[in-house]
Amino acid sequence: MSDVSKLSETARQFGRYRTTKCVAETPAFSLFEAFDPKELRSVSIAIAAAPEQMEEDSGLKHPAWMKVLRLERDDNGPFVVLEPFDGQPLESAFPRGSKGDSARALTILKQLAAALDYAHSCQAIHGNFAPANVLANARGKVKVLAFGAQAPATQLLPVVHYLSPERLRDNPVDARSDQFSLAVLAFRLFTGALPFAGDSAVSAVMQILFQKADHEAMSGLPVEVQTVL
Q1: What is the pLDDT of residues 76-123, one digit of tens each?
Q2: Quick check: 142 and 112 in contact, CB under 8 A?
Q3: How far is CA 135 from CA 28, 129, 167, 172, 213, in A?
Q4: Cα–Cα nearest to 185, from 130, 120, 222
Q5: Which residues does residue 227 pair with via DSSP β-bridges, in sequence order?
Q6: Spatial distance between the Cα atoms of 163 and 184, rounded to a whole number of angstroms
Q7: Contact 47, 69 (CB under 8 A)
Q8: Are 126 and 119 in contact (CB under 8 A)?
């Protein structure tokens, strides 16, 4: 069991913050709902799998970027305090293998595209854009988290299907890498499938590196959507 998994099962106090529930567990982080008794308000607490990946506020100010309030530390190590958000990981909201509602999917994708466009205009790259790093609520609002963005590709095997070829090679990345990941996410939301599925992480990597996408899965989509993808 990973250290992050142990935290989500046993820890209910981080500094002055009391957790109320574990919202999400991903390869990069665990996210909790918590209460701040000093400021008498709800917050989110994130624990990264690799402490060196935890950073202060990136400075990005966009409605779809999860706002970082502060970076703190207790006896368990560093943790990030974020704004509260009543959502669940997109991975859970749109289970793999089932198509999502097209209108809802489009609403989510518009927000994500705008968030990435804003970040890129600020010379910021996400680098690990996948459903596990996106929260969505019942009202169709989303929040993007950036944990694991600088992690080596070998640490990101659970989200390997969304990584660009240059990211998999640990080569320099730019905005196009995030665009690649967004396109994979769009493909999944509209079709329920992945363009580079593979029978294993290794086969998925090979499909991505050699651009062997499953075009058949999107044959039922409108021509305009197929063209974009």
Answers
A1: 888 999 999 988 888 887 877 777 688 888 999 999 999 999 999 999
A2: yes
A3: 14, 12, 23, 27, 26
A4: 130
A5: none
A6: 9
A7: no
A8: yes
